[in-house]
Design a protein that fits this description.
Length: about 350
Amino acid sequence: MTSRVLWCAAIVFACATAPALTQSQGPDVRTSAAAPPDAAFLKQYCVSCHNARVKSGGLALDTLDPRMLDGHADVWEKVVRKLRTGMMPPDGAPRPAAAARETFAASLESALDRLAARQLDPGAPALHRLNRAEYANVIRDLLALDVDVSALLPPDDSAAGFDNIADVLTVSPALIEGYIAAAAKISRLALGDPSIGLDRAVYRVPGDLSQDVHLDGLPLGTRGGIIVRHTFPLDAEYDLQVAQGGGARLGGPPAAGPRAEDLYVAIDGARVAIQGRGATRIRVPAGAHTLAAAPVVRTRTTGADGIFHVNARTPGITQVVISGPFNVTGPGDTPSRRRRRLTGASIVSAIVTGS
């Protein structure tokens, strides 16, 4: 199991920093069908100074052919700049007509463009790591595992509103440590490593979510509440706490608080029995499960005097806390466990191709 966890952790870490490999095409360079540069122009106006003997400006153009630019593109780029700016030929030397100079410079530029189109050099690509959203998607696609990356990795930098630009997705030593820690946790979660440590997940109800109306997805007769999707790593027992406004908790509310039956708590639609004080310990099979919690609306009850009384309002849900695992019985059967037989080659291929 240890070797499988280490291998899976290495693959998960590679997902984070693998460059986005895409098939790139060269620029669409369209040049006019210009005539090749005229060597006679060079001989008449340039080589008298720029030759192997005088070598003015460090250039010896008499040994070069303007129709064969390979290996000397930097020299001919300099020639174009001097001609375009009118710096050559210098004052006092024979100067060509403006039309002749324009024709030679344009033909030399066209030849240089064609050469550049054949010899593309995009430079070394920047290391383009995945952002948090892309990282979570890769983990889901490869390991059939939904992870909350916001709890594992720091927020991504952004530029112009985008957080998937290579220039801002830098890789720092602190971030590398975060990815290594995330890879270790995700690999154990994916493989169902029995040595996984205790964890505590807190799901808080957003402050702007009304707790006074019925929440879609919860049964009729409840008010407000929360629905979360949580991945339980192993077949084991887990402690469950549902906190309410005013400090009441599921499992053992104060005497002045709401009764246990005034709370609806269910996992995958099956209602959870409340036992004892504090957290309620329940056994849950490994995998992703939906947990729902909400106060039950009870408008009237019959008192000991036989008269209907209106119940005090049950406080709204503020958060759900899941702790565990305890008393592990096995790794369980989950989609991520079924994929653990993937070979290294198939995983790497999936990372590179995105398939």
